[in-house]
UniProtKB/TrEMBL annotation:
Organism: Shewanella holmiensis
Coiled coil: none
Entry protein name: Cell division protein FtsB
Segments on the Periplasmic side according to the record's topology features: 22-100
Record's bilayer topology term: Single-pass type II membrane protein
Record-linked PANTHER family: CELL DIVISION PROTEIN FTSB (PTHR37485)
Alphabetical UniProt keywords: Cell cycle, Cell division, Cell inner membrane, Cell membrane, Membrane, Transmembrane, Transmembrane helix
Quaternary structure note: Part of a complex composed of FtsB, FtsL and FtsQ.
Gene: ftsB
Protein's GO biological process: FtsZ-dependent cytokinesis
Phylogenetic placement of the source organism: Bacteria, Pseudomonadati, Pseudomonadota, Gammaproteobacteria, Alteromonadales
Protein's cellular compartments: Cell inner membrane
Free-text function comment from the UniProt entry: Essential cell division protein. May link together the upstream cell division proteins, which are predominantly cytoplasmic, with the downstream cell division proteins, which are predominantly periplasmic.
One Pfam family it belongs to: DivIC
Amino acid sequence: MKKLLFALTFLLALLQYRLWMGENNLSEYFLLQTQIQAQQESNAKLIARNQILKEEIIDLKSGTEAIEERARNELGLVKEGETFYRVVGAELRDRNRFGH
């Protein structure tokens, strides 16, 4: 009976050692879970960004309105016969006046 009790105690100690100190121990498991969660969040952001880019590509391929809007916003282009006005907000004016 004592041999059985000793064997079970030894087996329990061995399993506890592997759980806390051995390869793929509990602390590594929790660290990996945290890394997986961070990677999944990063992937979700990238998937959302890719979806927006896909929609923009479809929009650019399907018509000229998106191309025209992009040319106006990013390149400052205007159509013939149009007059371009730049409106400067109070914040920007104040910053320029005070040299900030």
